[in-house]
Amino acid sequence: MESYTDDHHPHLLLASSLARLIEKARGGHQIQQGYFPDQPDRGTHVQMEGHAGHLILVTKGPDGAFEEATDIPLSHAETLLELAAGRVDYLTISLDIANQRTAVLRFISPGSLDLITVGFEHDEQGRRFQPPAWFGPEVTAEPGYHTRSIAMTGLPTVPEVEATNAALNGLLDTLDSRFGGLQHPQHRQAEQLIAPQPDVRWEAELNSDDDEDADDLAIEDSVIRELARSLRPRR
Fold this sequence. Notes:
Elements: E1 11-13, H1 16-26, E2 29-35, E3 42-49, E4 52-61, E5 64-72, H2 74-83, E6 86-97, E7 100-109, E8 113-119, H3 123-128, H4 147-153, H5 165-175, H6 185-194, H7 199-206, H8 214-231
Antiparallel strand pairs: 1-8, 2-3, 2-6, 3-4, 4-5, 6-7, 7-8
Helix pairs in contact: 1-5, 1-8, 5-6, 6-8
């Protein structure tokens, strides 16, 4: 079972175009959560992930929140979801960044939002962690971005996160670590694609012949082309 407790996983915003590329390259799986009204010292929610159902009790203590999950039949989980006071539905995509358990959360309901979370075993690891260039602003301290708050009160006002050249290149290196930095020609092509270009330039980039490097560059090629489609100016 995958579950992301807000108290222990830093949350950062992510540009939606980059999130789409990550989903295209890595896939993901869907999670549904239903939240019930909080009690003074605990909270309860139900979670459905694939064909598995879980009832999750979060107990609040002086050292933070402690989460305990109990397996329940899928039919019970479906019923509890219908009875929940608030619900969220999101796609989670697992990544490994600097040997840390990381996940992209692509919220579907109650609205569209893209977050990235990083898990740490110790607080000291979190303090030393330097987010890659393609991460957006951190929102961990803002309660409106916590999954319970999203389920109960809806999405917060989400600022636009720009997909810069540096962010794109950093993401490409993460998705395919065989190539480093900006030395690879596909990185330079990505910079051209992300900058505003006349329509004829976009057509030229999208129709370029990459057959010679197809075997080695399959991942990066598909990622860059998806970015081109997502960022292409509307006519």
